TrEMBL record:
PANTHER family: LIPID KINASE YEGS (PTHR12358:SF106), SPHINGOSINE KINASE (PTHR12358)
InterPro entries: ATP-NAD_kinase_N, Diacylglycerol_kinase_cat_dom, Lipid_Phosphate_FormReg, NAD/diacylglycerol_kinase_sf, YegS/DAGK_C
Family annotation (Gene3D superfamilies): 2.60.200.40, Probable inorganic polyphosphate/atp-NAD kinase, domain 1
Pfam short name (any one): YegS_C
Coiled coil: none
UniProt keyword terms in alphabetical order: ATP-binding, Kinase, Nucleotide-binding, Transferase
Organism: Pontibacter populi
This protein's name: Diacylglycerol kinase family protein
GO molecular function, one term: kinase activity
SUPFAM superfamilies: NAD kinase/diacylglycerol kinase-like (SSF111331)
Domain DAGKc residue range list: 5-135
Amino acid sequence: MQDNRAHQNILFVINPIAGDIDKEELEEEIIAVCEEHQINHIFYKTTGDEDVEVIKSLIKENKPDLVFAVGGDGTVSQVGALLIGTKTPLGIIPLGSGNGLSKDLNIPQDTEEALQLIHRHVIRNIDTLDINGHPSIHLADLGFNALVVKRFSDGETRGPGAYAWIAMQEFLSYEPKFYTIDTDNERFEGEAFMVTIANANAFGSNANINPTGILNDGRFEICLIERFPKTAALGILYKLYTDSIDDSVYTRKLSCRSAVIHNTEHEVMHIDGEPVELGNEVRITIKPKSLKVVLPVPEAE
Ligand SMILES: Nc1ncnc2c1ncn2[C@@H]1O[C@H](COP(=O)(O)OP(=O)(O)OP(=O)(O)O)[C@@H](O)[C@H]1O
């Protein structure tokens, strides 16, 4: 149901550099919407340094009814992780270079439309994952894509062009690695080019690794791209960008509630876009409906 009255106090966490978009005017627009609807607003602009600690204490001190992340997937994950298991919903104004979770949640990508969520929305619960004690809301990877994410985050250059350039360079020499994966109902043993732990569907780049994933079904998917001839790469890319990767003969999917990935070749890994080092045993469990999110009011309502 639409729920305007209950949310009178909102914390906006704004990443000023996300998506290389100037957000001065946006702040004015947020203030205007809040004033029109008699909503108290608190702003925090991230600095890239100890933001999590500051946001945590702002939530503790101000007890906001909602927290909006204004930025890209990195900002959304930082804020969302703090709200898992709490009564406080996560709102998103998508303004990053990658806005994967907001797209999976059908949040408007148009800023003017997204701003209307401040006063008109529904609240729904979605699942999250626990990966060796780290929260994951969106997608985590081992293998090729994780290596590209790591090199991208170690580098100076931002934006999709830099990401694509690194991916091309790495692709030429990357060799699939051997994994053993035990889920609550099956075992996989074999080589994989990449292993994606998917609570959601598509990366910020729009590459859809898990087209049939549902964010609140109490399950997650381990999506494998197995060894493939280099000549098949374009076909795989095409399927990733046309929501048809499940049709590829080089993919396989394990749907489960818990899993252990034995990462014996020490492949690098990322969780929701942040590189992490988790050791050789990666344990994943689903936390059903553990995060409240702010969504557009369905048309029928
Ligand atoms: N003021 C700041 N200066 C520099 N970096 C910042 C600042 N605030 C946040 N960050 C960094 O921005 C990153 C998150 O950016 P986010 O994903 O929201 O936007 P993005 O444009 O999609 O980013 P990216 O291009 O890195 O994916 C985090 O690594 C965070 O530490």
